[in-house]
Amino acid sequence: MVPLYMAFLVGGLLCMIGQVVMDVTKPNITPGHILVGYITSGAILSGLGLYQPLVNWGGAGATVPLSGFGHLLVQGTLKAVEQRGLLGAFSGGVEAAAAGITSAIVFGYVVAVIFNPRVKE
What we know:
Order of helices and strands: HHHHHH
Mean pLDDT: 94
Strand content: under 5%
Oligomer: single chain
Low-confidence stretches: none
Number of domains: 1
Structural class: mainly alpha
Radius of gyration: 17 Å
Largest sheet: none
Shape: globular
């Protein structure tokens, strides 16, 4: 089990890097660029076998941020390809992330029903 301070350190560093990049490159790099960049970099690092050591070292600090989502997609795809061949490449990532995606949709819907959304003026 990873100590809590390691998860906090790794997650904080990942967030800090994104914030520094946005601050230094303002207004060229937006939060949307950071989100896509983190998912893509997590997927690439996972495919190269470099993200799993970070997960082992930082625990939830490496799996909860968006780079961890990219890692999850790649690991699910690789596992499904081993089991089902080429068809696994199309379904493995979505199957691996299904619980998280479903939770985001359900909780987003519940919050939208409970609270009254307003447009900022």
